[in-house]
Amino acid sequence: MGCFQPVGTKDETSRIVVFLGRNCEMNLQAVTKAYDFTDRTVAITGGGGVLCGEMARALAACNANVAILDLDVSLAEKVAKSFEPNRGKSLIQQTDVLNKVSIQKAAEEIVKTFGHIDCLVNGAGGNNPKATTSADLSFFDIPAEALQFVSNLNLQGTILTSQVFGKYMAQRKEGVILNVSSMNAFRPLTRIPAYSAAKAAVSNFTQWLAVHLAQEYSPRIRVNAIAPGFFLTEQNRFLLTDKATGELTPRGKKIIEHTPMGRFGAPADLLGTMLWLLSPASEFVTGIVVPVDGGFSAYSGV
Ligand code: NAD
User: Fold this and answer.
1) What would be the CATH architecture of the domain defined by 41-229+271-293?
2) Whose CA is nearest to atom 25 of ligand 1?
3) Which tens digit of pLDDT belongs to each residue from 151-176?
């Protein structure tokens, strides 16, 4: 089950057939079709951002209806404008993932526009310099509000949207949620205590919700997470590169040294895993957290 397996006589073994769960056969054409998102609607929180903006573009290129939910509408608009012409449809909704009323409004707008919601990507999240230890800020002095901000944005911002969108999925008895975790979830990184703890909680919640929705509502509702390694984006540029020279900081150098593939990730590196987890190609996969990290999490350093 769930494995690639040649069938037929010896002469026929070149015809690759994929056996999927529930005893259904899927040929290569069907595999390709799994990545055609025509008539499928994907909501992406933080869709105006660097990583999730790239995901939104890829989904639109696969013909999805893409709802870009972001606090910053101007960023969301830029992403929607970058879609290839005649590929996918977009809807922009100003949404605060920490406000359930705002999330509910976005969900209603999506249903009004596209009829239903198939997938949710919980991408809004990130660290904040005020919750980062440094020569000027010790762990003991990080303000409670900064800790709460980072913790809420990453964890609450994933749980609240899952409550609202998960309910629509429970009603239809199908759907896919993809959370965005991080390397921090496997082993905490130095200097960013609240972000590390919050992403570990996102991975834990991914497993919890996968079990809950499958058992209580429908085995056709899946929940997984992607754990990006190190991608040079606006959120971490101040930690990884020197503002004046653009050179790698000692921390940035350490990361590259510890990444067997020897580079930072590019946003496009996330797309294959994202499409796989949102598509029927992963229909027997739920409750996993996939690192996309150039081998960082596998390397002991020796
Ligand atoms: P980004 O800052 O480029 O994008 C985040 C987006 O979220 C922004 O468009 C922002 O406007 C939006 N946002 C912020 N608060 C919001 C709120 N309350 N409601 C709705 N939208 C809100 O970040 P990114 O680097 O593209 O990261 C995307 C996700 O990937 C985050 O969850 C981040 O923690 C995670 N991640 C990033 C990296 C990395 O190296 N950049 C690594 C691991 C995980």
Assistant:
1) 3-Layer(aba) Sandwich (3.40)
2) 233
3) 999 999 999 999 999 999 999 999 99
